[in-house]
Amino acid sequence: MDVVEGVDVGGVAVARRRRIRRSALGAGWVTGLVSAAKVSLFAFDLSWWIVGPVAVLAGVIGAYAGARMGWTEGVREEALEPGEVVLSAYPVRPLFDEEGRATGPSDRARFELRVTTRRLQLWEGASRLWSHPWRAVRLTAEGDFVLVHHEDREIAELLVETYDGSPDELLLGAERLRARAQHA
User: Fold this and answer.
1) Same domain membership, residue 171 and residue 104
2) Which of 58, 78, 98 represents a domain boundary (last residue)?
3) Which of 33, 46, 66, 70 could make a disulfide contact with 23, Cβ separation 3.0–4.6 Å?
């Protein structure tokens, strides 16, 4: 049976799966090689029979971590519409998760708020929690927290990690994108 580029098989397009797999493999190889090289260089003075196994172990762990990061990034990139571009991405921490439990400071690594030319997206790993077009979403700030409103209701309270610690950069960008979407 021939596989045709872009054909839908089992609910997922073959071309899409290939791009995501390529992203995961590329990131895994690079991260694995860099991890093994770092261990080898830092432990250069030690004997090869000590450094070799440790470098291999570091390479395997680095390859696994890189493949997971590459897979996540590949899924996020494939979710973009044609012509849509990611302008910025912020590590965020929602105050509460979907089950209503409070999140902790370590949860910042799990969640990402992506600002694209067409929409605002909240991701948890490789799962998109929500995505709304700019004309339907509004951002406000309450102290250090960003409140995301969709039409008439508040859908998220997020602690956004920015360079200066304030959400002003995100709020200003969101207002410009929202105004542009209203006139488009």
Assistant:
1) yes
2) 78
3) 70
CATH of the domain at 174: 2.30.29.140
* Side-chain-facing half-sphere of 51: CA atoms under 13 Å: 14
- Asked whether residue 156 is domain-assigned, the answer is yes
* Spatial CB neighbours of 44, under 8 Å, sequence gap ≥ 6: 51
* Interatomic CA distance for residues 79 and 88, integer angstroms: 15
Backbone φ, ψ for residue 153 (5° rounding) = -125, 155
Q: To which residue do tokens 């899924």 refer?
A: 75
Question: pLDDT tens for residues 109-166?
Answer: 678 999 999 999 999 888 999 999 999 999 998 888 899 999 889 998 888 887 777 7
Cα 59 to its chain centre, rounded Å, is 23
Give the domain extent around 28. Answer: 8-78
Of 62, 78, 94, which marks where a domain is finished? 78
Same structural domain, 71 and 100: no
CA distance 106 to 159: 12
Side chain identity, residue 33: L
Report d(CA 13, CA 73) in Å as an integer. Answer: 17
